[in-house]
Each structure stands twice: as structure tokens, then as C-alpha cells.
Amino acid sequence: MPSSIEEEIGGFTLSIDIAIILYGIVTAQAYFYWWASQEDSSLLRSMVVSVWCIETAHTLFCIYMSYYYTIIKFGNFEGIAQTTWTAGATLFSEITATCCLGLSGFLDVLIAFSQIYFLWTSRSGHQATDNLVQTLMAYIINTGALSMCVSMTIIATFWIPALKSSLLFGGLGEIQSKRARFS
């Protein structure tokens, strides 16, 4: 058991705060899409609104979870060990989460390699175009690698015994779920 409350929920609380900031970015994207894409079909616009509503519910769960652990159960190690219903709603189970994160990391690599392959095979031989293709490939590698590293970090913070008692993996999982909206 960690020696202090800070070690137990510090990383978790910071991660939830970052996830809430990312929610603000998603909200801004949805807002700008709504006003800039009046010509899109009703179905597509409804899907964007639906995703935003689900994202809003997820963020409210995260806010309650943070409130529960930092205010309601403040300083109470036994209370922090209890899982609030919103934590269960955002992260179904440890096995499911591990499988999903492993698959997420694998898919990030697969998508990155397929994008790089198609960009590489579509080079034209013109210097300006090939420079743009190289820039896009570097961007794809960097974002895919970052996403995969976050997924693997979440798995590591969950399964490593020294970190398992901390709630850091839960907060990182919330960040990862927000990051998926930007892909």
C-alpha cells in the first residue's frame, strides 16, 4: 500500500484533469464542425452530436470519480480502495481494459504502417511532393508511436505490482479514451 494519499491518487487526479481539458478540445471541434459543415448529411451531423453527448457523459463520470476520491473519501485509504460506480462505467474491467489497450496499441501500429506504405508507394518523384510525403510519414510515425506508448504505459501501470495499488492507470485510461476522439 502506498505510504501517502498523494501516491495513491495524485497521478489519477492529474490524469483526470488532463482528460477534462481534452474534453474541452473535443467540444470546440464539435462546435466548429457543427457551424462549418451545414452541407453535410443529417446522419453525419447526428453522429457527431451523438459522439459529443457520449463524450459529455463520460466526462461527467470522470468529474464525479475525481470528486469521489478527492473530496468524499479525502484521506481515507479504505474509501479510496472502493470502486465508485462511475469508475466502473468508464473502465469496465481490468481484463477488458488490458485487452482493449493492447489491441489499441496494435491497431495504432497497423494503421501507421498502412498509411506509411500507401504514402511511400504514392511518391511522385517531384521534390516538393516527396518532401510533403516524408513530412506526413514522420507525423504518422510520431503520433502512432505516442499513442502506442500511452497504451503500453497504462498496461504497465496496471500490472506492475509497485504501481498497481495506485489509481494512475485509471486516469491514463481516461486520457487515452479522449485521445481516441482525435484520431
UniProtKB/TrEMBL annotation:
Keyword Manganese part of the UniProt annotation: no
Domain of life of the source: Eukaryota
Chain ranges of the DUF6534 domain: 106-169
Pfam families xref list: DUF6534 (PF20152)
Transmembrane annotation, as ranges: 12-35, 47-69, 95-120, 132-160
Database matches in InterPro entries: DUF6534 (IPR045339)
Keywords for the protein's UniProt record, in alphabetical order: Membrane, Transmembrane, Transmembrane helix
PANTHER family reported in the protein's UniProt record: CHROMOSOME 1, WHOLE GENOME SHOTGUN SEQUENCE, DUF6534 DOMAIN-CONTAINING PROTEIN
Protein name (database record): DUF6534 domain-containing protein
Annotated organism of origin: Fibroporia radiculosa
